[in-house]
Amino acid sequence: MAGLRNVYVSFVFIAIGGLLFGYMIGITSNVVTSGQLLCAEDWTGAIGSWTSSGYSQCYKLDPLQQGILSSLNLIGAFISSSMCFRFADSMGRKLEVQIGSVMFVVGAGIAAASPVLWGIYMGFTLYGLGIGFAMHAAPVYIAEVSPADIRGTLVSAKEAVVVTGIFLGFLVGFLFSSTPVYGWRYTVIVSAVFALIMGVGITFVPQSPRFLVLQAVRDGGLLGGDEDLLSKARSALKFFRQADCEDEVEAELQTMRRDIAASVGNRAAKITDAFKYPTPLLIGCGLVFLQQITGQPSVLYFATNIFKDAGFGNSAALSSVGVGLVKLLATLFTVWRVDQYGRRFLLFSGLAMMTVALAMIGTAFLFRECQSGNSLIDCDEKDIGLPQHWAVTTVVALMLYVSGYQIGFGPISWLMISEVFPVSVRGAAMSIAAVVNFGTNIGVTLTQKILQNVLTPSGVFFTYLALTGVSLVFVKIVVPETKGKTLEEIEDMIAGRKRSARDLSATLSLGA
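Below the sequence we write its predicted structure tokens.
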């Protein structure tokens, strides 16, 4: 295999979008918490309203309002993912990432600098637009430029970058947690620095060669291809493979050209074209839907407060840093072993760990008590906690829970999405999956606090336990194994085609 240094360098700049997504998840639990954006119980200063102006004020928000504020970046991501329905295949993966980097910088700057609540809302929403563009483009781009034998590692590594962002967000949130009222602003502005690095770096990375070949075939027809675009694709492939042998690059390029010409027409895909491939759509959308409704993303948004519920009080922010570190280590394990163990094995292993952990957490929260001696009904929220041994059980189980998620659902879902969709509809289909992902995430995050009040924390975790069981059945019945296969071979496998027949059809189509 020729040198892949440029693949790895390009991965770093593309994947920073994932780091910024994870960073926002990590800091949210320390932004939307008492003593920061929300007023502390003993706060005696100015309490802000929707239009009041000032940097020394904090806000009192009810559970629904807190859920909305925590979901603004997801709402923005949902909007931009919806835009990708129409424009992703015309923009290309590189331009999507560049737009995302601009949205990150502008959104973070506005949110951190705004003296009014509506400006803070606007900034987080713009930041979310950046998440949608970056997260839509990244897994597709990485999958398209990576050789088959390392594709699983690199796409999974994108999730490791997301988790690194979560850990970094928890850590920065903890560092500024002792700076009341203003601390959350400093945590937000840090993200703008990473976004600038991302925007500058991506300008030196070429477009995906598979995307260029796709455009060439569509512009030039099945019997030819736009030679200017093919020349750019050839140059891009040489950049990514660093191949000394021209024949090696040309052979891979012509393989791409034959496979793409055999499976696409000469027009850009419409969103409705993705529904012509129900099996990939079921796999991709099913995984990201179940990934969200099993609860782990919403747990992260409220991790600090969950530790407070468990009785850790002022140590809650530091405990969240520990969660981020465990998530990162578990993700690195998956990155290390995904191309050896395969996708299905890791999904089953991760879901089994989540099942055990959820049973432990749900049971532990049954024993919450009022530490001031009153009944739970009459107890102030700050006085509700767990007996020490159950508090420790909760933390251990929560670590097991997030580890299971990062071994399975976290990295594998996005990896499978980048693999199972045919190249002809990959951009449009990825948009559908992203909309399902962010839309479900919004719903889960918005209702997290409400569900805790209605079902109690224990009931919420037992609900997630039942949904994890559904996920195990789904993986068993629906999800295929794709390790070691090229993107074109995966397309053939899901469609039930034999490779030899496909190659013959491609050759005839090209007049070879």
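The chain has 19 helices and two strands.
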